[in-house]
TrEMBL record:
Pfam families cross-referenced by the UniProt entry: 3HCDH, 3HCDH_N, ECH_1
Annotated source species: Roseibium salinum
Location of the 3-hydroxyacyl-CoA dehydrogenase C-terminal domain: 501-595
Pathway(s) this gene product operates in, as recorded in its UniProt entry: Lipid metabolism; fatty acid beta-oxidation
Domain 3-hydroxyacyl-CoA dehydrogenase NAD binding positions: 325-496
Coiled-coil parts of chain: none
Identification of the protein by name: enoyl-CoA hydratase
Domain of life: Bacteria
């Protein structure tokens, strides 16, 4: 199989110095003939370096040896092809509850990093691939950072409800413009090679083959001097300017990550505002704050989300054996799926009954590749791999065919019949249908065992989840291939069984419809959206409906109403009328909201907004989630939680719908649902599965 292009670094052998070598557990120390020592981190039994306590202890011993016999310079680099160091070992944070004990452990870690920083020879971090979290902090403690082209640096801690905890808060804000440093830490975004150089994080960008020369040049420098921060940083070291900047950051952060739900970025702003420019005070505050944050429900739930992702990734273990993919239908989804597969290294042909969508699909691929930070050469390769194929020549060659034609049952059956005739006998056929029951589609194939669902979410490059949908006749080999393939394209494979709406749409649709019904009750749309956002949804249900397209929502809702045995909310008349008028949401410029520059034009917050019944929205989802578990649509509660978080952004700090239900108390939820059923109708009748939810 073609290697994914993003790991090109893996094809190059890494320059790891030479000379006699001493082992320090997860580290090796080599001293080359020029007097430069190379500290190589190579964590045992794993493909990715993390900065666990053991790795730090090993580093401490290595530093002792370096101090005892000071080299001309010390290079710190990773032996792993994928990158430098991915961050702390998150499993060490799980279940943390004793702040003092955590602070103690952090102080020990700071001691090691401070020791590296204090070495009396130039220290040079060489970073290829990622330097994240603790890895970035280790690199910051060096005098210089050489980025191998393609390297990136970032602090993803906010995504775990934390901020940097091993000196990153003060080292980065000392090294570069502090407002840029804060932006990186507050958003969790990474700085890719060129940006890292521009910001002053990387001192030099080089290629692997020139590394020796670059190291030699830095080894000759004095070190310990950086002046990339400039005038602005000097001003921000003064209190009043910092207060003003912190105020601005606070209000911007509140919009994206309200303090009530996400305390970490606010704590970070507080640390910088109170102690910016005073390294020692900042270090103490960073340790105390990190030790506190890690014990909060938010951080523990977000750490849970981290492990949920790992769990889904595991579904993708194994090799699919797929090298070529054919996509039928180059509309919104087909084009995105094709682009993504080509970016991830697969040979893709794509067909459509119209020519225009094929051209657009190629443009889409170039755009997505650019957003994914691919170089010009890599983009050229992506476009070489993606072939518009109006006559479907690729169909007969492909290992995997993905059907992404319009959601019309007759059309799909007709198409699948012809795909079945033309595809190789050993090829697997998948459909991206959102709502059609798979058994009915499978019946048109000669061998239904080679057919299953591969339900991507829109946009494919942003939403990681893919439902791998089984039906009674799908073979185990087909499902294994689809799971592995999903893993190979870096998405999260989620096995579900065919069911109206599968898993995610079954749970999401009642919530969207309840919001639509509230509009019928003359509640301001912005107020409805805000109620869901207050719960922690990244955007309200009506904005979601407008973004997805009211026509698509209507299709899914209609199909659910027809197929589910349980009552779901009426589809309000205004929704059909809007769709008939072509007011489809964002794509047509008008839906529930008017859209301008990709943003819905909402009314301003007012008192009415806080009175919207949040439970009507959220419990609609939870009740459907419990039904899905009871019906065995998904194998276990954790997979359900993960699916809703990664496909819909379900308030991640709450750990997923079932986790939230358990924390809130299933008995209380059942009582609330009964009350809602009395007031609003039988759609709220508690699912019989609630009796099992309390049981872990
Ligand atoms: P779309 O209307 O944007 O694209 C469909 C494409 O199929 C069009 O380019 C059309 O010309 C082409 N087409 C029509 N008949 C064809 C035929 N006989 N052979 C080949 N091509 C044909 O639709 P979409 O939104 O991309 O949806 C495609 C599928 O993906 C549907 O099953 C839908 O339910 C599912 N889906 C959509 C979304 C979404 O958000 N749009 C999300 C997940 C799944």
């Amino acid at each position: 199989m073609n290697k994914p292009v993003l790991s090109v670094i893996g094809k190059t052998s890494l320059e790891l110095g030479s000379g006699p070598e001493t082992n320090f557990g997860n580290w090796r120390l080599r001293r080359d003939e020029s007097g430069v020592a190379w500290a190589i981190v190579d964590c045992k039994d794993t493909g990715t370096n993390t900065l666990s306590e053991t790795v730090l202890t090993d580093l401490s011993q290595l530093l002792e040896a370096v101090e005892a016999d000071l080299p001309k310079a010390l290079v710190v680099r990773s032996a792993k092809p994928g990158g430098f160091i991915a961050g702390a070992d998150v499993s060490e944070f799980r279940g943390a509850s004793d702040e003092d004990a955590i602070a103690e452990r952090l102080r020990a870690g700071h001691g090691v990093i401070d020791r590296l920083e204090a070495l009396k020879c130039p220290t040079i971090a060489v970073v290829h691939g990622f330097a994240l979290g603790g890895g970035f902090e280790l690199a910051l403690a060096c005098d210089y950072r050489i980025a191998i082209d393609g390297a990136w640096f970032g602090f993803p801690e906010v995504r775990l409800g934390l901020h940097p905890g091993l000196g990153g808060t003060f080292r980065l804000s000392e090294l570069i413009d502090p407002t840029e440093a804060m932006t990186l830490m507050l958003t969790g975004k990474s700085a890719h090679t060129k940006k890292a150089k521009k910001l002053g994080i990387a001192d030099e960008i080089t290629q692997e083959r020139h590394l020796r020369a670059a190291v030699a040049a830095f080894a000759r420098k004095d070190g310990k001097q950086h002046n990339g921060r400039g005038f602005k940083a000097a001003v921000l070291d003064l209190g009043p300017a910092r207060n003003m900047a912190a105020g601005r950051m606070r209000s911007q952060t509140e919009e994206k990550a309200p303090r009530e739900h996400y305390p970490a970025p606010h704590a970070l702003i507080g640390i910088w505002e109170s102690h910016g420019g005073d390294r020692s005070a900042m270090q103490q505050a960073e340790i105390r704050s990190f030790a506190h944050l890690i014990t909060t429900d938010t951080a523990q739930n977000l750490i849970r989300v981290f492990f949920l992702r790992e769990k889904l990734k595991k579904n993708g273990d194994g090799k699919s054996g797929v090298t070529s993919v054919h996509i039928v239908g180059a509309g919104t989804m087909g084009a995105e799926i094709a682009a993504w597969c080509a970016i991830k290294g697969f040979r893709v042909t794509i067909s459509d009954i119209e020519l225009e969508p094929l051209g657009k699909a190629v443009e889409e691929a170039a755009r997505t590749a650019r957003k994914e930070h691919l170089s010009d050469i890599e983009i050229r390769d992506v476009l070489d791999r993606l072939m518009p194929d109006p006559r479907s020549y690729g169909l007969g060659e492909a290992d995997l065919i993905i059907e992404a034609a319009p959601e019309k049952p007759d059309l799909k059956r007709e198409l699948l019949t012809s795909i079945d005739e033309r595809a190789r006998e050993d090829a697997v056929i998948a459909t991206n249908t959102s709502s059609l029951e798979l058994g009915g589609l499978a019946s048109v194939l000669k061998n239904p065992g080679r057919f299953a669902g591969l339900h991507f979410f829109n946009p494919v490059s942003k939403l990681e989840l893919v439902e791998v949908v089984s039906h009674p006749q799908a073979s185990a080999e087909t499902l294994a291939l689809l799971n592995a393939f999903t893993g190979e394209i870096d998405r999260l494979p989620t096995p579900v069984r065919t069911y109206p709406g599968f898993l995610v749409n079954r749970i999401l649709t009642p919530y969207l419809l309840e919001a639509a019904l509230m509009v019928d009750e003359d509640i301001e749309p912005a107020a409805i959206d805000q109620a869901a956002e207050r719960f922690g949804m990244p955007m309200g249900p009506l904005e979601v409906a407008d973004r997805v397209g009211l026509d698509i929502c209507l299709d899914v809702a209609d199909s659910l109403r027809d197929k589910l045995e349980k009552p779901i909310a009426e589809i309000p008349g205004w929704m059909r009328k809007r769709v008939e008028k072509g007011e489809l949401g964002e794509k047509s410029g008008q839906g529930i909201y008017a859209w301008k520059d990709g943003e819905p034009q909402k009314s301003k917050a007012n008192d009415e907004m806080s009175s919207v019944n949040q439970d009507r929205l959220i419990l609609s989802m939870l009740n459907a989630a419990v039904e899905c578990l009871r019906e065995g649509v998904v194998g276990d509660p954790d997979t359900l939680d993960a699916a809703m978080i990664f496909a819909t952004g379900f308030a991640p700090f709450r750990g997923g719908p079932i986790h939230y239900a358990r924390q809130r108390g299933p008995d209380e939820i059942v009582v609330t649902l009964e009350e809602l059923a009395r007031r609003h109708g039988p759609r709220f009748a508690p699912d019989e599965g609630w009796k099992d939810i309390g049981k872990e």
